[in-house]
Design a protein that fits this description.
The structure is a single chain. By secondary structure, this protein is α/β, with parallel strands linked by helices. The protein has a single domain, classed as Rossmann fold, CATH 3.40.50. Helices cover 40% and strands 22% of the residues. The strands form two sheets. It has a five-stranded parallel beta sheet, with helices on both faces. A two-stranded antiparallel sheet has the order 4-5. α2 packs across α3. The longest helix is centred in the middle third of the chain and has 19 residues. The termini are close together.
């Protein structure tokens, strides 16, 4: 099994989601492709959008260079059987670096396609495990705009088998929240 391990916490030390995602990867085992988003990815811009919407055979060198990182991220996603994402909740949503990754991998014709019945994900048969940590936001609540969003985006590209491991309300529950998440990891099927 190949795992794509994505960490999106800005903190490289003392991060709950980094610890949890590492525990998940260790539990699942397999070959690991590592993607650390602590050094933020570029935001998409007009140049990127124009290159992306230019047919592959018509792209010039500059357009291919513009899309090179995005192509690499898509290749990593396609190569993985399981995607493990460490996702802290910042201000009720995902970190900007994780949103940038999503913008770079959600590409018509590569990870989803449009049909007369709407979009269809092209990455069927994969699994995702999301390690979410929050300071005070209850995961799954009306003010949690991170975990539902991530499940939706993964489903959009065809990944419907998604587990969420939550260490929520860490600022209120402390070690108990982390212990509960670790217990959930222990129960994950490999």
């Amino acid at each position: 099994m190949t795992i794509l391990h994505i960490d999106s916490s800005a903190r490289t030390q003392g991060s709950v989601t980094r610890d949890l995602s590492a525990d998940i990867v260790a539990k699942l085992g397999g070959d690991v492709i590592r993607r650390d988003l602590s050094e933020a990815l570029p935001q998409i811009n007009e140049t990127w959008v124009n290159a992306n919407f230019t047919p592959v055979d018509d792209r010039d060198t500059a357009q291919r260079d513009t899309l090179a990182l995005s192509d690499q991220l898509v290749d990593e996603l396609k190569a993985a059987d399981t995607i493990v994402i460490g996702a802290p909740v910042y201000n009720f949503g995902v970190p900007a670096a994780l949103k940038a990754w999503i913008d770079l991998i959600a590409r018509a014709g590569l990870t989803f396609k449009y049909t007369e019945n709407g979009p269809v994900g092209l990455l069927e048969g994969k699994r995702a495990v999301i390690a979410v940590a929050t300071g005070g936001t209850p995961v799954g609540s009306d003010i949690d705009f991170a975990s539902g969003y991530l499940k939706h985006v993964l489903g959009f590209v065809g990944i419907h088998n998604v587990d969420v491991i939550a260490a929520d309300r860490v600022m209120a529950q402390g070690e108990e929240a982390i212990a509960n998440a670790k217990a959930d990891i222990a129960e994950l099927a490999a």
